[in-house]
Design brief:
single chain; about 325 residues; alpha/beta; Rossmann fold; 2 domains; seven-stranded mixed β-sheet; two-stranded parallel sheet; elongated; S-adenosyl-L-methionine
Length: about 325
């Protein structure tokens, strides 16, 4: 039987990272998140998982003995505080508090490995150099070696241009055996991934649409509560979606029916215009399997999808970490 490893998943969201890690051989001893809808989604898909709805800053590891000395502490901290826009909207203290809470938790839990993901700015930008140094220094006191890297989800089969900044920390004897995952090849296009679902209600132009949608998706955004309702991002991103034959102004309730007529530049009301993506379709572009469920109403569900860590990338990273731990 394949050896399984134990993990603690913080800021778990709807479970994209946990699902990928599960595929890589990690079973979560506990998952935590502040969002009740995300916690409900985790229960919907994996009722056997132990899910705690709490703020990371209030979580005390020793109150949950099962998380002590796990093989992997993994989490995706909220992305907005480290984004270019987020620097204008979020207090530095809140941003740093979450990262510090994660480091403190790591020193308490003492996992063999740590994996944290966020926006690439956290890894690449000189603005965060002092913060990176602070994290490395704190973890060094506990015997960890840190490495930082930026990975693009499209290199691991996710049909989307989506960069993630990743920190991996291990003790030297394990880090000697760690290497970043290699690309698994070219990702499918939006049309290839969503063509069958677009045709599922009898839309006659679904095949033509799939030929038009002949690129991987732009980065899916709109998952933050700081933004308005469910849409596919700012104006620049919406223009890319329009080029791919998608109306990015909002998220649809269903795919087009047989009487829908695709028209560019003729409005988006009624049965004319560009089709909108459903939450389930966006989830496919994030790399979720079609049977993964999201709890809540449309906007709450879309926010979970928009904030998610693509499961295929989580699996690739998990396999690399597992190989290092299993040397």
């Amino acid at each position: 039987m394949e050896k399984r490893f134990r993990s603690l998943d913080i800021c778990a969201g709807a479970g994209g990272q946990a699902l990928g890690l599960e595929q890589a051989g990690f079973d979560p001893t506990l998952l935590l998140d502040t969002d009740p809808h995300a916690c409900a989604s985790l229960f919907l898909n994996r009722p056997q998982w132990d899910v705690v709805e709490t703020d990371l800053r209030d979580f005390v590891g020793h109150e949950y003995p099962q998380v002590l000395n796990v093989d992997l502490l993994a989490g995706g901290l909220p992305r907005i505080p480290y984004s270019v826009a987020g620097q204008q909207r979020q207090a530095t203290s809140e941003r740093d508090d979450l990262l510090k809470a994660t480091v403190w938790l790591a020193t308490e839990v003492q996992p063999r490995a740590i994996m944290l993901e966020n926006v690439p700015h956290l890894v690449k930008s000189p603005k965060f150099a002092e913060l990176r140094d602070s994290v490395e220094e704190e973890l060094k006191h506990c015997g960890y070696v840190c490495v930082w890297h930026v990975l693009d989800a499209q290199d691991f089969g996710v049909p989307q241009r989506r960069e993630h900044g990743v920190l991996v920390a291990m003790r030297p004897e394990d880090m000697d055996h760690f290497s970043w995952p290699s690309s698994t090849g070219k990702a499918a296009t939006v049309g290839e991934v969503l063509g069958s679902s677009m045709a599922s209600r009898g839309w006659q132009e679904a095949h033509d649409w799939s030929l038009l949608a002949n690129e991987v998706a732009p980065t899916i955004v709109g998952g933050s509560k700081e933004r308005g309702g469910a849409d596919l991002g700012p104006t620049r991103t919406k223009k890319i979606w329009a080029r791919l034959g998608v109306n990015g102004a909002s998220i649809g309730d269903d795919v087009p029916g047989p009487d829908f007529v695709m028209r560019q530049g003729e409005g988006t009301h009624g049965h004319r215009g560009l089709p909108k993506l459903t939450v389930e379709q966006v989830a496919l572009l994030q790399g979720f399997p079609s049977d993964w469920q999201f709890a809540g109403r449309k906007t709450a569900r879309y926010r979970q999808v928009g904030q998610a860590f693509p499961p295929p990338l989580g699996a690739a990273l998990g396999k690399s970490i597992r190989a290092a731990l299993d040397h």
